[in-house]
DNA sequence: CACTGTTTTCATGAATTTGTGAAACAATAT
DNA sequence: ATATTGTTTCACAAATTCATGAAAACAGTG
């Protein structure tokens, strides 16, 4: 049935599954539905850089239907990218780029806009008073965050680049030749 | 408090309920359970600055039991403050201070720490490879955000103070603090 | 135009989550 | 003490969400 390339690495699969579950828990605690969390966590933790729906299903050991349901909102939220290769009948999903978290952060812009809109609308219906004032402050906060988000991301990317250079500066540490290419599609 | 003196502003209560619901929707979309979202939204929108459990129940028109269940995690998350006055048998809940959103932001620190921990642990169990590298990046991102959070909040507070002074400072017109608001933009 | 491998939709059953009324539980004031 | 006021816990009913298998819908290939 499911052909495991090599079973000797059972240990590794366990560790991986555990890691995936751990990440998924954090995500669900932040309100992301379980299945979406698992898919994202798996894509984060697993070594491949893209996955077909069935690879995801196999990797997490759930039905393909569940994958289908989870992948759509993930793509919509911008946490997964769907790439379709010409001449292939399978869609491929991949985490956004190398820098996943920048993508995720930037994705929050529209959400903040919705806050701005909603608070503004609500304010327009409410009389003066502390409540309305708090709403206004909320609106201001969301607006501020929206303008600051790109800067924050930029700073993160700079920081990230710095970490990278210091890490790879003393390169010659591939360490584990296990880094076999799985992207030989 | 400023609740039903009689039933004069029925209109207003409707508008308020609508505003509360609107805010609550945004919160639930971010993963906060419905009841918690309503309580928080109500505390944000309503004019009072503190509420007993029963006032919350009345305001949202829901059983006190539901309030009790919703308030606990809110307090735990640091979104509500529970203040007990001596010589009163009722707990009072209030939004954190004037600057709600600073409090909320700062509250995210521990969560980021958990991410750092979880990713580190997961990494320690995984072999070298792209997946592990992505986990590491996640860890770095969370760490960065944790260190940057206070700065971000500080900048927001400065920005906020500026908004405040421009609004109330020169013009000596605190009567209508947000007269600048034109919704037809 | 059938054939094949894949993804999506749909109805179903299961599990989880919600909100409620009623009772138990403080803490105070009389 | 005991009555009073207010909060929390408990068991349960209702509503919602989940994940699955089976089958339909797609897209590419010979």
How are the SSEs ordered, and which strands pair?
2 copies of one chain form a homodimer.
Chain A: H1 10-29, H2 34-45, H3 53-60, H4 64-77, E1 80-84, E2 91-95, H5 100-106, H6 109-125, H7 130-169
Antiparallel strand pairs in A: 1-2
The first copy, chain A, binds a DNA duplex (30 and 30 nucleotides) through helix 4.
For the record, the CATH architecture of the largest domain in chain A stands as Orthogonal Bundle
Q: How many domains of chain A? A: 2
Helix content of chain A: 55-70%
- Strand arrangement in the largest pleated sheet of chain A: 1-2
Q: How many β-strand stretches of chain A?
A: 2
- What is the gyration radius of chain A calculated from CA atoms? 21 Å
**What is the CATH T-level topology of the largest domain in chain A?**
Arc Repressor Mutant, subunit A
Assembly state (oligomeric):
homodimer
Query: Secondary-structure element sequence of chain A?
Result: HHHHEEHHH
Distance N to C terminus of chain A:
21 Å
CATH class of the largest domain in chain A: Mainly Alpha
Let me know the largest β-sheet of chain A.
2 strands, antiparallel
Overall pLDDT metric of chain A: 82
Give the uncertain stretches of chain A in residue-range form.
1-9, 169-185
Keywords (chains A, B): DNA-binding, Transcription, Transcription regulation
Protein name (chains A, B): MarR family transcriptional regulator
Region (Disordered) (chains A, B): 164-185
Biased composition (Low complexity) (chains A, B): 165-177
């Amino acid at each position: 049935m499911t052909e495991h390339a090599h079973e000797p690495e059972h240990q590794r699969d366990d560790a991986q599954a555990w890691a995936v579950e751990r990440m998924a828990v954090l995500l669900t605690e932040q309100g992301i539905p379980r299945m979406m969390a698992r898919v994202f966590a798996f894509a984060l933790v697993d070594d491949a850089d893209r996955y077909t729906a069935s690879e995801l299903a196999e990797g997490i050991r759930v039905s393909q239907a569940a994958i289908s349901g989870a992948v759509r909102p993930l793509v919509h939220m911008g946490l997964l990218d769907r790439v379709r290769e010409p001449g292939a009948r399978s869609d491929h999903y991949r985490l956004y780029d190398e820098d996943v978290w920048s993508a995720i952060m930037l994705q929050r812009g529209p959400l903040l806009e919705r806050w701005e809109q909603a608070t503004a609308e609500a304010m327009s219906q409410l009389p003066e008073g502390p409540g309305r004032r708090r709403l206004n402050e909320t609106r201001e906060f969301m607006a501020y965050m929206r303008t600051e988000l790109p800067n924050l991301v930029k700073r993160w990317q700079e920081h990230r680049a710095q970490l990278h250079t210091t890490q790879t500066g003393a390169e010659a540490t591939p360490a584990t030749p296990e880094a076999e290419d799985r992207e030989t599609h």
